[in-house]
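Throughout our pipeline, every protein is held as a single compact record rather than as scattered files. Such a record has a labelled line for the sequence and another for the backbone structure tokens. The remainder of this section carries one protein's record, kept here as part of the documentation:
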Amino acid sequence: MLALEKSSIPDWSVGPRAQAGALAQVPGWASFHRVEWPLRGTLEVEVALEEASHLQILVKGPGGDPLASAPVLVRSPSFGGRVRTQRITTDEGGAISVSPAWPGSHEISPVQAPGGGAISASETVELRAGERSTVTLILEEAEGSLSGTVLDQWDEPVAGAKLNVSWDEWVIRSAETAIDGTFLVEGLPLAPVMVSLHKAPKSPISSLDPQKIERAFEPVSATPLGGGPQDLGELRVIRASRQVSDALLVGFASEDMGTMRAYLTQPLGLKPSWKNLQMTPRTELSISETGVIEFPTPGAKQTAQITIWRAERQVGSVDFEQGTPSPVEIRIQP
């Protein structure tokens, strides 16, 4: 028989439930019990507790040494049949402890080395009441990679789309498509994974084309290859509408057409830095026989640039943003 004081319960963990209820747990024991508090006074309640289970997880790198500061996700049973997901970081000895733990199935995510480069498989542990269990996860080098291109129904690239790569139903890598719709995901296990669209482009910082995606591509199953990316080819999405502007070349001769190239670059209002200048993605645009170039309309607060090259020399350029009248004129230097 336990007497529970509403005002002060030392050595107990109590959380509110509704207006006059509480959950109580004795440290070192797994059972939680819901009790209804009286508005005043003391409540005497008989509680039968079971001894808690204990789960220890050891994480080791590819060489067998303990791996410190590695984040681990653990899905564990909780009160009322719920499932609780905890993010725990390994200590200096590469260990974490889930204690006390509820009896039942505990799922452990794939563990990645800080900075990438190695990963472990996921694990599932069944715990009985009062059981103590230790699981050791050993990381292996992650040498697999995947690539592909996300296009819409008009064969136009989808920039800024966020992709997830899942292994055993755990997301282990994410990627974002470049301005030409391409993506590359590295540091993957040489095992079957799933690639899915996590988030359509909508942020003005992440995409030149924030149009709504009505239907994503179906998740794709693939097995990454070592020694070079496995190309998934074209992944198709359906967009609600098409929004394309065009540019008109001014002051060029038709005989120059074969030597001219047009490129769309993506400053997107980012703060200037050598990294941004060196790594700004660009995609080549087609030029019609009459000197017309089609390009995706930027979103709000976005900027972009078209550059025209004749052989190895830049002969024209223009900056534009949302609302710039179409067509945009690009004057070509002689």
About this structure: Confidence is low (pLDDT under 50) at residues 1-33, 202-210, 268-279. DSSP finds one helix and 30 strands in the chain. Residues 16 and 135 are 34 Å apart (CA to CA).
